[in-house]
Structures are given as C-alpha cells and as structure tokens.
Amino acid sequence: MTDLRRRKLLVGTALVVVGETVGRAGVISGRLPWTANTSDSPTPAEPGPWRFFTAEEGAMAEALADRIVPPDPQTPGGKLAGCAVFLDRQLAGAYGRREGLYVSGPFEPGTKQQGPQSAMSPTQFYRQAFAALERYCRSLQDGKPWVDMPPERQDVILSGLEGGTVELEGIDGKMFFETLLKDVKQGFFADPLYGGNRDMCAWKMIGFPGAHYDYREWVSRHNERYPHPPVSIAGRPGWTPKTG
Amino acid sequence: MREVAVARKLPAKDAVIIGLGWTGSILANELTDAGLDVAAIERGPWRNTATNFAPNTAQDELRYRIRHELFLRPAQTTFTFRNKMDQTALPIRDWGAFMPPNGVGGGGVHWNAETWRFLPSDFVLRTHLTQRYGARFLPPDTTIQDWGVTYEELEPHYDRFEYLCGTSGTAGNLDGKIQAGGNPFEGPRSRPYPTPAQPQPFSPTLFAKAARELGYQPFPQPSGNLSQAYTNPLGVRMGPCTYCGYCEWFGCANYSKASPQTTILPVLVRKPNFLARDLCEVTRINTDASGHRATGVTFVDSSGEEWEQPAELVILSAYTIFNVQLLLLSGIGAPYEPAANRGVIGRNFTHQTISDVESFFDRSKFIFNPFIASGAIGMCIDEFNGDNFDHGPHGFVGGGYMGQVQTNGRPIETTPVPPGTPRWGAKWKTAVRDNYLSALKPGTGVHGSMYSYRDVYLDLDPTYRDRFARPLVRITMDFHANELKQNAFLTDRFAEIFRAMGAEQVVKQYRKAPYDITQYQTTHLCGGAVMGTDPKTSAVNRYLQSWDVPNLFVMGASGFPQNAGYNPTGTLAALAYWSAQAIRTRYLANPGPLVHA
C-alpha cells in the first residue's frame, strides 16, 4: 500500500467530487465503442539482417535449428524454414524482454512444480548459452566452432544436453536444450508471419490448412483428405499479384 | 488516515460491479432492468469482435495460445504457489496450470464454451455421499459440503443462461423423461436446448460408436459454439459456427461463440443507467466504521490515479482468486486458518482433475482432420461422473465426464507422436508428418472433479507483491489420494474406448502428484469464498450474499464449495441469475440479510 499512500499524500485533497471522466481509462456508455477500419493486427517479422543475434550467433542458431528439424527431400530443415529468423525476431521483441511476465524478486530456486524462477531474460539466457556452447565445442579434442562440426557430432552434443550428460559453463545445459527445442518448434509451426514456417512448409508437411476460416462443408465429410492448400494470416502466394 | 479521505470521489451509484465478465455482465443487465444506476469497473481493456478478433487475424496460435495475449499478464498481478504448507511459495512468473482472463468479457471471451449443468447430487454432496456410503467412506481431511441451493432451484436459471447463449445440444432428461441421444444422467430440464447439437466430425462419431458398443450412452457435448444462427431473448443475434478450430485462448471472429460480447453487451451498453470503465483496477471494497456495510470501492485508473466509487450495493464478480484477494485485502470475512481450521476466506479452494489419452491409428485407414474443430464439438459419456456409478468397490468419491472433444489441430500444441519417438531430429519430423491426421489427442479428455481439503487453500503471500505493492495471493495446493485414484480409474475406462475404436497404440497420461503449476489443467479454479448454510464454513449465503457485509454479493466459481466433474461456466452463470433474482425480488425492497444465520 505504500505507493498508493504516497500518491494520495501528494494529491493531498480530501473528497474531491468530479464528473465521470477518469484519467486515460475509458468510460463506455450509451453506445458500443467501436471505430470503423481499426483492428488489432499482429506485428510481422521484418525481412533483413539479424535483429538480436550477432552474425556468429545467427549462424549457430541456424545450425542448431537444422538439427532439431533436419532437412529432408520433401521439407526444408529448421534453417531454410526460417526458425532462426523466428527466434531472432522473438528475442528482439516482447518475448526477449519478458514483457508482461512477473520479474520481481526475490529469485529463489524452487521445485520443478513451481516453474521457472530464473532472474535472466531470454536474451541474456541465449547470449550466455550460445557463448557457453561455443566454449564447450572448442574445448573438445579437435575442438572447433559449432557451425563447423559434422551433423553427427552436433547430434551427440545435443543429446548430451538433453540428457544432462553435457554440462555447459555457467548455464543450465538441459534448460538451454529445452528452451531451444520449444522455440525452434514454435518457429517451425507458427504462422509464417513471424519468420519461420517459410512458405507454410511445416503446414504442408502435415496437412494443416492454417488460418482457414470455414469448414462447414467439411464437418460431416468423414475420413476424407482435405484437399485445399494452407493459408497464412498474410494470405498465400498467388493471392496477391507480384509487384516490381 | 482513511483511504476514502484522499481518493477522488465519483458521484454515487446504486450498484458497482467489480469485473465485467460473464457474471458481471449478467448482474449488470439484471440490475439495470430493475432500474438501478450501475457502474462496472474492469481491470482489462474493452474488447469487441470486429476490432479485436477480426477473422483475418484471430487464428494465430503463437500470439494467443503461446504468448497469452488475451489473458491477464503476470506483470499486472500473479500468484505464488507451493504444494505443501511447509514449503516457501514462489511466484508464477508465466502462466501454466491456468490462465486468468483480462478485459471486458472475461473468460467468456476465450473459453471453449463447454456449457454443462452439474448433477442434482453435486449440490448436496456431503449429504448424498454420507447417506449412500457412510461418513467413513469420505477421504480423510476432506471439507466437502452442501451448497445450500439445489438443482431444482437452479434449473430455471440454467435454462435462462442456455437460452441467452443459444446453447447447442441434445436434451437427455425432459421433465423427468429420459430422451434418446442425450445425457441420461443429467437433471431434469424444463425444455430442450435452444439449438440442436452441432454435427460431429469423424473422430467423435467413431468414439460414440465404440462407446455404445461398450454399453455406454454417448451424447453430444453441450456447446456454446452454435450449430445454427440464433437470436436470443435480448434480441442479440449470433451466427453459426464455422469449425475453424480457434476457440479456447482465442476470441471468436464469427459471433458464433457465446460470450458477453455476443449475447449481452450490445444491449447493456446502450442503457442510459449503465456505464463501464475499462483499464481500471479495484484495489479495495470500502466499508463503514461498523465493517458490516460496504460504501463502495476504490480503484486505480490507467494513469495511476486513485478514485472512489461510492455505491449502495457492491457486486464482486472478478475471477475466482481475485474475489478472494479483494475480500482479504478489504478485511471482509475471517481469513481461513488451516492449522486452527477456522475462518472462511480462502477455504475450500479447488481445481479440476483432468487427464488425457493419446491414440495412434493406421494412417492408411484413418483421416481425422483434427483442424475441423470447435471448442465444444465432441461426443461424451457421463457414466463415471459424480455419483452416477457405485463407488463402493473403488475406494474413492467423485468422477467426471470424458469425451472425444475435437477442439483443435493447431500444430504447435497438437502434433502427437507415438511413444518412443525422439523429441527432435529426423525421426521426430517423420513421425509428426505421419501421425498428424491419424492421431487423436482429445482437447477435453477426462474431466474429473476435485473435492476440497483442509490443506488446499488461499491466503496472502508474506513476500511477493503486485505492481501496487499489494501482497499476492498464495496458493497452497496438491492432489490428494482420492483424486489420483479417481483419475486412474477414469483414465483406464477412457483408454478402453479408444482401443475399441481401433487405435493401434493408446497412451494413457494419468494425472500425477505433486500438482504442477506449469502444466495446463483448465482455468476452472473454484472456491475460496464458498457458499453455504453456515457462516462458520461459508463466506456467502445461498444467494451469494456476504454473511458479514449484506450489501456485498460475490459471484462466480469462488462460491463453489468443491468442484464437480464438469466445466464450471453453466453453473456459475446459473448462480448469477439465481442471485440476481433474489436481489431483484427480495433484497431491493428490504436491503439486509436474506438469510439469518
């Protein structure tokens, strides 16, 4: 209550009676507060260079994403699907800053059931984890940067992080693996608007029609393959004529 | 110095409503109809379909499901959590086990619209179980109790809510006559659902066939996502559901999901005797020197200014835990003390005991199209709910409905792979591709009750504070053996149905202790300010009127003495209409206690 009390002392006026208008908050009365041609649109990932990653980190993120989601003849891997771009834009945005989350201390380790209690933001965490992984790779016999390791060797290290047998200096390797796994998969399957799932490759792979709106003709058609290609929030190639 | 002496004061209202979700909207509409001048104060923003859930942007799994955009943000306020009383509670820094709503419409914006009634025996639980099995059959330390209101009393109010929403379903019991195709275990209803059940996709149809072959009586889940266009008694028109598969966590772009926005607000907002304030957070309910009369509320607007809204009648209709928090911070009612087993505010806090079964079918024979979905489209059975079966041989009480409810095929959340598949790499990718269309992961599986216990409760945290420096609510919660036994029994029965459907692999995901705050388990938190017949064991009387402050009524699931094996919205809305009727017909003529303790 201390903040409230202080504010009231600053106001310092007793029993001020005023009209219905209060601060910036809205008063809704008499009609639905609706304005034409307004909508609460998402913020798309912008093309271009890395926003959060350094060039080295970006290359590492692409190489990591390609092991979580490896390329195959039908479907691109994490790198070409844009999972690293997705991660970069997320880290440069609200997710990286932990916007909206509860970040007041004290920070104490709890039980697994109490959930993550880290004082670190995702941006701090990824920066330190990438550096720690790079140090680990270089410390190995014939050590070399992560991006120069053969995929089989990368998989062994990732498995070690997943199982807790590979330890990173100053960072919880297992937590790094779990965070990376979650974020890369989100990038692979989220709407392409956010930089991953390029050309809806993940949706095409599984047969998900995406941000499709109306299945009324299909709800009673049982055990039939839905034939139409997926659509993103931003539409799909062919919907908008090419310019320039 | 008293708070009211310095906050700026607004003109007095007949009634002030704290939180404009389902129950706040219902009470506002009823009280304005009765001629009262009403102000509603809502912590979150105004939201409307055309602007906030536009059909070209609503279907965004990352934004709404993963990043929780429509929900309260923990930075605004959160809770601390521990399993046991001897642990130190730590803050929930990001949502997991449940997600509190935020904004006009409340949870009604982003629910699945699974619109159930509780069983007649649920309302007289302790009496019923004691009579059938004896008091010694009840779990040790359980604090279950009767509600003080019966199903028969609530029936007209369930009916009103269903007709407000246009609920789609098949009646199972009309005036005591069992109806083919409906739920034969439900309490008698006075008339059919306002709209017929939704047509069922492939997987619920297959589930129902297998369930019938096993001797069960499957029925369509009652759904607030409508099978056809509907105009409700207030004159508000809704459109038919298009099965887009974005209900839970999402606002409906199509005016098809019952919510305050699609059923009440267009009428309520036009009334001259109503106003709503958004982005204003009530920080306390003010009382006079006696402590037994509410004088209004204090709230803080979005610029941080503090205001007083005086009112003759206060309706507390926030989310479960925030009802409890406001009572505790306002000094209304005796805080619950588990060690001494006395006090009421924070007592009998419950959640839901849910589990699921994933099943994998031959992909050359089964195409389920999981994305053709809605929040409450599915076939259910009720043989193992409440006391619909003899618990004697099983050694537990309670139960739940279970069903193949096809809520979504959104791929971040719903890409099941068979057991033994690695979690990443080429094998994982292949398994995702091969199983997406032919695996089943019910959006609602086993939906079990959670009964109340002495050591599961709410109080104020000694350490962690919100942005106004108020103490966070501390949740102390764990599963008890009774619920774990119940869940094992129900999950096994559920899995048998998927085997009978022809699944090649069936994976049972039992609910296990300890309760885990990171695993989503519905947002059906209940209790903490429960209703009842005795002020020693209840915060509000059978009309949801505070025993301590008779001009304060507390809505919502915070009034449930324990949670049943159904989704809570139908019941908390029926209770809101029941309470509103008592206010309109009895309280307003003679303000004071409606029940004398």
Helix-strand layout with pairing:
The complex is a heterodimer of chains A (244) and B (597).
Chain A lengths: L1 H10 L15 E2 L26 H14 L9 H4 L1 H10 L1 H4 L24 H18 L11 H13 L9 H17 L11 H6 L38
Chain B lengths: L7 E2 L3 E6 L3 H12 L4 E4 L7 H4 L8 H6 L12 E4 L7 E2 L15 H4 L14 H9 L17 H15 L7 E2 L2 E2 L23 H12 L5 E2 L9 E2 L5 E2 L21 H4 L1 H4 L5 E4 L3 E7 L6 E7 L5 E11 L3 H11 L16 E4 L2 E8 L17 E4 L18 E6 L19 H11 L3 E2 L3 E5 L8 E9 L5 E6 L4 H20 L4 E5 L16 E3 L23 E3 L14 H19 L10
Parallel strand pairs in B: 1-14, 2-3, 2-14, 3-11, 4-22, 14-25
Antiparallel strand pairs in B: 4-5, 6-7, 8-17, 9-10, 12-13, 13-14, 15-24, 16-19, 16-20, 16-23, 17-18, 18-20, 21-22
Helix pairs in contact in B: 1-13, 6-13
What does this structure look like?
The complex is a heterodimer of chains A (244) and B (597). With 244 residues, chain A is mostly helical. Chain A has a domain at 44-99 and 190-211. Chain A has helices at 2-11, 55-68, 78-81, 83-92, 94-97, 122-139, 151-163, 173-189, 201-206, and one strand spanning 27-28. Chain A starts with a helix and ends in a 38-residue tail after the last helix. Chain B has 597 residues and is of the alpha+beta class. Chain B has a single domain (8-52, 79-168, 186-587), classed as FAD/NAD(P)-binding domain (3-Layer(bba) Sandwich), CATH 3.50.50.60. Helix content of chain B is 22%, strand content 19%. Chain B has helices at residues 22-33, 49-52, 61-66, 107-110, 125-133, 151-165, 202-213, 260-263, 265-268, 320-330, 425-435, 481-500, 569-587, and strands at 8-9, 13-18, 38-41, 79-82, 90-91, 173-174, 177-178, 219-220, 230-231, 237-238, 274-277, 281-287, 294-300, 306-316, 347-350, 353-360, 378-381, 400-405, 439-440, 444-448, 457-465, 471-476, 505-509, 526-528, 552-554. In chain B, strands 1, 2, 3, 11, 12, 13, 14 and 25 form an eight-stranded mixed β-sheet that branches. In chain B, strands 8, 16, 17, 18, 19, 20 and 23 form a seven-stranded antiparallel β-sheet that branches. Chain B has a four-stranded mixed β-sheet with strand order 5-4-22-21, with helices on one face. Chain B is globular, with a radius of gyration of 23 Å. Residues 1-5 of chain B have low confidence and may be disordered.
